[in-house]
Amino acid sequence: MSMKILKNISLKDFNTFGIGGPARFFASVKSIDELKEALQFAKKRRLKIFILGGGSNTVFDDKGFNGLIIRNNIKGLKFLKKGNSVLVEVGGGEDWDGFVEKTVSKNFWGLENLSLIPGTVGASPIQNIGAYGVEVSEFIIKVETINLKTLKKKTFSNKECKFSYRNSFFKTKKGKDFFIIKVFFKLKKNGVPNLKYKDVSEYFESSKKKITQKNIRQAIIKIRNRKLPDLEKFGTGGSFFKNPIISKKDFDELNGKYHGLKGYIEGNKVKISLAFIMDHICGLKGYREGNFSLYKNQPLAIVNFGKGSFEELKKFKNKIQKKVFQKTKIKIEEEVFLVDSK
Ligand code: NAP
């Protein structure tokens, strides 16, 4: 059966910010064959394409997208036990947190600290999602893709994915040619809890709860809900900016000026908390202009109070970047992807 390619579909409903005009064409693909069909459709008409997952890290132009949006809807989840480890094969279109929940319910360790992150499994390697001391790259064995230009299958080993902090090969210009159909993870039947983040260890100290995998997931869900905006109430893309990684020299300078700024070693550089900078150095926590604001409990997240436009969001984020630069000389990078109409 042939797949339907839809016309003039509002993109507002396909990103958690709730911003965007119509896509000229839109295809939700459930298999490699459907993906190939969609790609051929685009090729024939010389259309620009954009690959969409859960839309939790993407915002679209109010003018829409003058091409074909291909939504990854490839499902499937298989567990294969091998000694103390478990190999998991997951379709790129599976919901990330639905997948994490299943691993926790089966007591397969590794991903519990990455609970409640919105988006799809296929998007997880692209920005190497990470939270509370865990990065998804630690568990990825390989990533299966289709080359959008040649339509050939290509598998990337963990090494070939070139993972780093919130980054991978798939974020580079060349990497954008690959559509992630499947991700393979290696989890453990007997794992070690990771409580090295303050929020998590404090949760267990104060609640006196037993440190089980299920309770770690519950802890992460509670902590995230306390800090991050509720997607049901606000338009948002979660953390809008990345935490900066700066040189040791720059860190020492900044730290001399502003006490309390914590630094975490990242290779030969230092990773710092942008939330701290925005709050304590720039006084920006809760900063609002028009329809947009930095969220009151976590200034890294921008929220849309309902009627915000793409242009307004761009102006708002530029202003924040400028304010942070004026105070700290740090150029903060956005994590959310802004898709222009053409
Ligand atoms: P947080 O825990 O207050 O941490 C702020 C900053 O300090 C981050 O750069 C974090 O590094 C670093 N940090 C804190 N404790 C650390 C430790 N024990 N060792 C090393 N580095 C440490 O951050 P938050 O804003 O409340 O967010 C909670 C977690 O969710 C963080 O891990 C954050 O990165 C993550 N998060 C990820 C995404 C995403 O992937 N898109 C979006 C939102 C939040 P890390 O960033 O390396 O953790």
General description of the model:
- It is built from seven helices and 20 strands.
- The longest helix is centred in the C-terminal third of the chain and has 19 residues, at 310-328.
- Helix 3 (198-207) packs across helix 4.
- 41% of the residues are buried.
- With 342 residues, the protein is α+β, with helices and mostly antiparallel strands.
- A hairpin with a 2-residue loop joins strand 8 and strand 9 (134-135).
- The protein folds into three domains: 6-72, Uridine Diphospho-n-acetylenolpyruvylglucosamine Reductase, domain 2 (2-Layer Sandwich); 77-188, 2-Layer Sandwich (Uridine Diphospho-n-acetylenolpyruvylglucosamine Reductase, domain 3); 235-339, UDP-N-acetylenolpyruvoylglucosamine reductase, C-terminal domain (Uridine Diphospho-n-acetylenolpyruvylglucosamine Reductase, domain 1, Alpha-Beta Complex).
- The site of NADP nicotinamide-adenine-dinucleotide phosphate has 20 residues, from strand 8, helix 3 and strand 13.
Give the topology:
Blueprint: E1 6-10, E2 22-29, H1 32-44, E3 48-52, E4 58-60, E5 65-72, E6 77-82, E7 85-91, H2 96-105, E8 130-131, E9 134-135, E10 140-147, E11 153-157, E12 178-188, H3 198-207, H4 213-227, E13 235-239, E14 245-246, H5 248-257, E15 263-266, E16 269-272, H6 274-281, E17 288-289, E18 292-294, E19 301-304, H7 310-328, E20 337-339
Parallel strand pairs: 2-5, 3-5, 4-20
Antiparallel strand pairs: 1-2, 6-7, 7-12, 8-9, 10-11, 10-12, 13-19, 14-16, 15-16, 17-18, 18-19
Helix pairs in contact: 3-4
